[in-house]
């Protein structure tokens, strides 16, 4: 499959691959510890293998992108991380703990948030209420245990939650639609609201499944800026699936490439894009074109 041929978003400069928040030439300490590790993950649906022996690590504080043709297994990998799918073989570790069998509902509580390729908003609810849903797991008590608390501190907690939600609304520049019904918004704004709901979880790791899909150039530029700010200013580690190679090159620290459920490359964006296997699988270049690029012609 060829890469996205639509106009490429001009994103802010990508953070230097020496490390998030670092500049080339600065003294480097030890590599950041991985916040996420996939270990030999295989996923089967009957006789079909969606993923085969995939291993990788996402370092704390980086933007890590997964790319590949349609059907390569990208969303299947994210679904294994978020708990929607359980790997047939292998393990997923988060913050050093095995979460392979942890129920989906509990992964938000340990710091994993996500958006979806297909929007999953509550269309009949307001933007504000959709984002407040993301705060649900942060509530301190259930009905019975919360009765004394409700009398003493519920109002203060509600104010605190709404204050944080308003901060997210300001950050994502959706103040003008905060009271609008989500289902009435444009596609680009709905994508932004879904990102806001994921951010409201206060995740350590945020999984973004094609955040730029269906957007025009201006919307892509805004989304790329928001993702960079979440990473650099809000301290969130980002794992992103994205087809727009311009965006991937501009904002990623490292990139992994999947093809037919197998990992075929991993490294800095520049190194991955230069890999002949990637150019053949993802960019659709023929073998002879790849050889012409990599091997100087003999006169």
Give the terminus-to-terminus CA distance: 33 Å
As a percent range, the share of strand residues is 15-25%
Q: Which stretches of 5+ consecutive residues score pLDDT under 50?
A: 15-29, 287-299
Q: What's the Cα radius of gyration?
A: 21 Å
* Secondary-structure class: alpha/beta
- Largest beta sheet: what is the strand line-up? 6-7-8-3-9-10
What keyword list fits this structure?
single chain; 299 residues; alpha/beta; 6-stranded mixed β-sheet; 4-stranded antiparallel β-sheet; 34% helix; ABC_transporter-like_ATP-bd; P-loop_NTPase; ABC transporter ATP-binding protein
Summarize the structure in words:
The protein is α/β, with parallel strands linked by helices and 299 residues long. The chain is built from 11 helices and 10 strands. The strands form 2 sheets. The chain has a 6-stranded mixed β-sheet with strand order 6-7-8-3-9-10, sandwiched between helices. Helix 3 (127-133) packs parallel to helix 6 (187-200) and helix 5 packs across helix 6. The longest helix is centred in the middle third of the chain and has 18 residues, at 154-171.
């Amino acid at each position: 499959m060829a890469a996205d041929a639509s106009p490429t978003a001009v994103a802010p400069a990508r953070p230097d691959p020496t490390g998030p928040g670092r500049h080339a030439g600065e003294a480097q300490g030890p590599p950041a510890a991985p916040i996420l590790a996939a270990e030999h993950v295989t996923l089967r649906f009957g006789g079909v293998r969606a993923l085969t022996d995939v291993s990788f690590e996402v370092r704390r504080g980086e933007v890590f992108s997964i790319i590949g043709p349609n059907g390569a297994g990208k969303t299947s990998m994210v679904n294994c991380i978020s708990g929607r799918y359980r790997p047939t073989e292998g393990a997923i570790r988060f913050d050093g703990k095995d979460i392979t069998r942890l129920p989906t509902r509990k992964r938000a509580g340990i710091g994993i948030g996500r958006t979806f390729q297909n929007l999953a908003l509550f269309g009949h609810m307001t933007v504000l209420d959709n984002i407040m849903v993301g705060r649900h797991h942060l509530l301190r008590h259930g009905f019975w245990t919360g009765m004394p608390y409700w009398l003493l501190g519920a109002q203060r907690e509600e104010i605190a939650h709404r204050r944080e939600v308003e901060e997210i609304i300001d950050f994502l520049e959706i103040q003008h639609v905060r009271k609008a019904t989500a289902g009435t918004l444009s596609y680009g704004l709905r994508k932004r609201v879904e990102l806001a709901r994921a951010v409201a979880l206060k995740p350590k790791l945020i999984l973004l499944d094609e955040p730029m899909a269906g957007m025009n150039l201006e919307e892509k530029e805004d989304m790329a800026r928001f993702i960079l700010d979440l990473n650099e200013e809000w301290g969130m580690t980002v794992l992103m699936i994205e087809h727009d190679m311009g965006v991937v090159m501009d904002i990623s620290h490292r990139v992994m490439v999947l093809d037919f459920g197998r990992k075929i490359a991993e490294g800095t964006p520049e190194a991955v894009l230069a890999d002949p296997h990637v150019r053949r699988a993802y960019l659709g270049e023929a073998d002879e074109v790849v050889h012409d690029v990599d091997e100087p012609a003999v006169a």
